[in-house]
Design a protein that fits this description.
With 298 residues, the chain is of the alpha/beta class. It has one domain: Rossmann fold (3-Layer(aba) Sandwich). Helix content is 23%, strand content 18%. It has a five-stranded parallel beta sheet. Strands 1-2-3 form a three-stranded antiparallel beta sheet, covered by helices on one side. Strands 4-5 form a two-stranded antiparallel ribbon. Helix 4 links the parallel strand 9 and strand 10. The longest helix has 19 residues. The radius of gyration is 19 Å and the shape is globular. The N terminus and C terminus are likely disordered.
Amino acid sequence: MDLGHPVSSGCNVTETQQVDQTRVIIKEEDIQEEEYDQEDEEQPFAELHCRTETDVTESNASDNEAQQTTAEIEVKIEEDDEPDNSNLVESEQETIMRRSYNGREFFVPKDVEVCFLTDSICRDLEQYVSTGRCWVHDGTTLRHSLVEHVYYFRQLQKPAVVVLHIGTNDLAAGTSAVIMVRWLEALICRIARMCAHKLFFAVSSILPRPVDDMKTKHAVKACNCAMYRWTLSQPNVVFLQTWKAFVKARVVCEELYQPDKLHLNVDGKKRLFFHFQEFLRNFCGFKMSVGSSVKNKS
């Protein structure tokens, strides 16, 4: 069973031999807000339904054709980005689990590693993760992580689930939804190149904040809608509707934020981490120590 390069079919990334760069395609799409209604009632876990089947062999996924470029963003790539696959056994057989998430099926190897790459909103996450890897960077953006933080994934020695919670600072800097999706796409593609094993990605939504004005609220909606739609086309990428845990009766839950109305307080972090916990428990059997009562606090 081939466990390598799982997301290549969905990445609009090409390389040139003359110039050591990756060109990321930007294409405008109509974003229909009815696909993403941030004013819904809080339903953070309603869409999660998982089932397990062991000893199942994963079928091979065919590569999709890359779309033509209409605009380009250039990101410098080091020559040694390619992982060392010399020890990878292509015929390796593993016991895998069939998982269903949001109506999509995934074949997840047992005993996968779990990694978190996030911005400062997930500070203190390591207190609840005893066996996973937590890389939390204050002030980071999708573009910065694409350049600086992908090399962590060379450390992985087996298949992994990667949870990404980055994008708030990109949005604050005025980055459009379309550009954010392309930076996200490039980040995931480059992370996949760092590791010789199969990777699954869980993209956490940008959280609404009490301080947001109408323009920012619209931008948050548009970004989450665009990221969600993009993940649907990717074979091993899912979108976590974490924003739903922070909205009740069409209003952002201010009690989950610090007085500045920008950053999560302790209860807010636990609410977010509980969502991670439930997703990982169902998707790959990974255990966190957030607890079971945070979901019901309001």
